[in-house]
Write a structure and sequence with these properties.
With 352 residues, this protein is of the alpha/beta class. It has 11 helices and 19 strands. The protein has a 7-stranded mixed β-sheet with strand order 3-2-1-4-7-6-10, sandwiched between helices. Helix 1 links the parallel strand 1 and strand 2.
Amino acid sequence: MTEYFFCTYFDRNYCEKGLALYESLKKHVSSFRLFILCLDDDTFHVLKRLLCPEIILIRLEDLESRDLNLKAIRNTRSLIEYYFTCTPAFILYIISLNPYIDIITYLDADLYLFSSIDPAYKEMGNNSILIIEHRFPPELQHIIKFGRFNVGYLSFRNDLIGLQCLHWWRERCIEWCYDILDGERYADQKYLDHWPEMYPNVCILQNKGIGTAPWNLARYLVRKEKINRYFIDENPLILYHFHGIYEVGHLGPLILFDIYLRKSRVRYRQKADVIQSIYKDYLFQILENRNQIATISDDKVLQGNSIRSNRKSANSLIQILIRIRSIILLVFLWIPAILLIKDGIIIRKKTR
């Protein structure tokens, strides 16, 4: 039986999402190890108390103690920028302590599996590096300036080419990794654009069911067959990137989640029921994890809102209007278990 090795990182803001990723791995991967870099003490203590046998916990200070150059630049970046900077250093840390690993796959914490991940590894074959394009539709091509490839799913083979790439990426991120666009640089992500020209044996994944996300959903025919079996054009949905979800508000047992699709200009006609079902599966898992965390944590773990969401935004007025409209809907309309509203989902909490 093949054992897969994955890694991710998150802080208390993404704890419930990171656990959703883990639960999806348990459903669809028969044998795996998930290395988690805990970006704060709250996350470490919560995960330690959960006693998940497939998870290997790593403290941020453990990484920093082995990479002093990484630690030295910590105060020169915002928190989210420092997290981005950690990505290649964290992957190299895992390989250095576990040299038996053949392939290590990095996953963003807000990814979720819907079926077996095997097709990704089959497509990678004997290559040393696997990357995924954003696959923007025509109306979103203007944001390709932030990177042709998405950093959310990456695989590296523990060979000369894979390690050379990781070391080069780590050095670049330590030199410069900021949440701004600067020519050919953006965070840890735009560096990936150079890899197909710099290195041989780079696989650009073609499977449409892997790396499906709000920013490319408009390109595809999305359909559902049987129970919880989704298709992206002809490919089964394997890995969806639930980017940008955050809780807008709630009223009694009802919660409104902004699911980012409004920002991504997804066309809803003939897709709404299927998209609704995909997000419903994920959000039910999020709420289940939230309840689980609440039973073991004395402190309130923040509920899934990113660091970026704390910034003042030009869209703040829009968000206020969304909240007002949502409350009106909650008060005056009968709401089924889950409802798609173009820019959000209202989902009924499960009562204990």
